[in-house]
Structure formats: structure tokens, C-alpha cells
Amino acid sequence: MKLLYFDCFNGASGDMILGALLDAGLPLEDLRRALGSLGIGEYELAAERVLRAGVSAAGEEASAGTEVQAPHSHAHQHEHTHSHPHSHSHRSLAEILRLIEHSALPLAGRVRARQLFERLAEAEAAIHQMPVERVHLHEVGALDSIIDIVGAVFAIEWFGAERIVVSPLNVGAGMVRSAHGLFPVPAPATVRLLGDAPIYSSGVQAELLTPTGALLLTSHADAFGPVPRMRVQRVGYGAGTRELPGTPNVLRVLVGESTEEPTTEQIVVLECEIDDMNPQIFGVLMDRLYQAGALEVYYSAVQMKKNRPGTLITVLAAPDRREALAGIVFRESTTIGVRYHEVHRERLDREVVSVETPFGPIRCKIARRAGDLVNASPEFDDCVRVATERGVPVKDVHAAAVHAWLSRS
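^ thats the sequence. predicted structure below, dont judge the formating
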């Protein structure tokens, strides 16, 4: 399993995340081409190496206009446009969403980027008690922040990680100045975007975790915690703006493969309710869905509007089968809408063991969690087959198989 681990021992910002991914192997030219399709005007995107407390890291910088950037000294290196005030022209949420929609980014990237900016606007709207459409995005509406967010989405997808784990987030301490005045660290927008992510403060008097950093990490993380068991193939460091006393102001990303046997997977759940279909069709629909790769299909009785009895259709599948399965539901049923959402599913480690019974061999499915036996069940189809062949009740064959397994173990 391809794995990304973000080590946020000194917090995170959008440019630190993007810088770390560039340092870990993302080609700068690929990033430039992806961002060039946004049509956000003339700017220059550059990356150069800097030192933070003796650690070499990548600093990413985007500047507006057509001037050529002069190299910065290590003492004054910035990763983004704080040194270029003219680049902070703000765009509204609607403008940003239009730019994303008309870009050449892959569909998954466009969807993810839209979701991020919408989540950001909803957080600001909740803080300031105003409708989302009236929200002014301030810093995150500036060119450099648009590049950081959209660029990070592209960069993370470029690595093709199947699992993303993030360390507990160091938020810093003290006060931070925003467009609305002085606020304690973490800033209100950052707190709103954290959700249930674990945080702490190392006592450094600075804003270490920015709203953009919180947005990107909490939206992409499959889990939070220490470094998982993995085989590291690449490492990247993204530089923060300032020097911090006694510690490198960098974010570290580890790229590699998990050495743990995967027990969790991401699946998609499709659902719809139907109250106007010939019940004979439900059997055909289930068969077609299983033939197309559905993991599970089941029907539940529900009471719908106008007090009509109906049927809830639920389909579980791998995410890449969503479009095909939704098409089958639309073609084979009378529904005019399908909901879907992605969830994580934990699977037990399974093996099949054959046991000898007085009626013949029966296969048993054995399930373990972290090596511990949690379940053993005879294969019912085997029990039916043997019972039919021997002319005995199925329950007797099933009981014999359970006894044989227990005696064996």
C-alpha cells in the first residue's frame, strides 16, 4: 500500500506542504503545467533550497507579475508571496470555483479543490455569522494561497497514495494578527477547520499551523497518529517562513509503502429509495449489480413521503466502480437520483480451512484480527451440498463441521 506520512512537529502551512512534496519528488514542471490551466494571470512559481536550523528544505514561492525573481538569502527566504504585497489581490469564492471548474486539472482534483474552498468558506461564514456567498476569504483568496491549495491537491494526487497519515498537529502559541485583529493561536478559522484532529503546543510563540495547513491536512488524512509501520522510499522537507529558536521550521513528509497487512479499505456507498417499481425487478437489479462488481447489495423496507411503503437500495463497492454501478441503478430501476459517499471498512484477515466430518470434508472460513481468532464458520454451501448428497438435515452437517473445527483447534 502506497503511504504518505506528514510529520507536523512544527505545524504546517500550504506552502510547507507543497514544498515538502516538491522536495520528495514532485516535478516542478508538472506542477507548473497543472496550475497554468487555472488562468489566474501572470505569475512565477519557483522552488529553491533553504536552511532551517541546519536542515535543508524546499521553499516554494509564487509571485505575481512578470518580473524575474532574484534569489533570496537564507536569512530572508519566504516560501510564498508575503514579500510581494501586490500579489494579494483577493478573489471571491464564486470566482475561485469558476477557475477550478474550467481548469485542466483531473476531475478528482477539481472535485477535491472545490470541496476545500467550499469548506473554507463555510468555516469563515460560521465564524462571522454571515451567508457563505458574502464571505470575504481574505488571505486565502490571494493568488499565492490559491496556488498553495490547488497545487497541494494536485501534488498529493500525483503521488497516488492509498493511505495518508498525519501526526498530531503542533499549533504553536501566543497571538496572531488577522484582518479582524489579534487572536490567540490557533486562530478561529484554524480551530474551525481542525475537526477532531489531535493538536498540541510545543510552547513556541508563533502561529505554526495556518488555516490553509489545517484545511489540507484534515481533508486528506485517513488517520492521525505516530509514524505507521512503513518502508520509507523518499523524504521531503518543506520550509516555513521564519527561523524558530532551537528547532528547524520545516514540515517533513515520508513517502513509502506500508509494511502492515491492510485491514481497512475505502469503499463507496450508493443509496436510493424506490416506491413505484415492480418488485420482480429488484431481483434482476441485484444480479446486475453483483455482476458489475458490487461488494454488497441489500434492500431495506422504508416508509416514504405521502406515507408510501418503499424500498431502500444500498450498494457497497470499490470507489472506482461508482459510476458504472450508478448507471446500472438508473437503467434498471425507476429511481431518478442516487446518493453516494465514501467510508472506511475494516476487514478481518481470512483463510479457508477444510475439516473432516462423518459426512465428508467441509470448508470453514476462519477470521482473525491482529492475529487473534475471532470467528470460525462452516461454508453453508458445502453443508447444503453434503446434506443433499447424504440425505441428512443441513443442521446436522453444520453442527458436525463446527464440532470438527473445535476439536481440531
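The first helix runs from residue 14 to 23.
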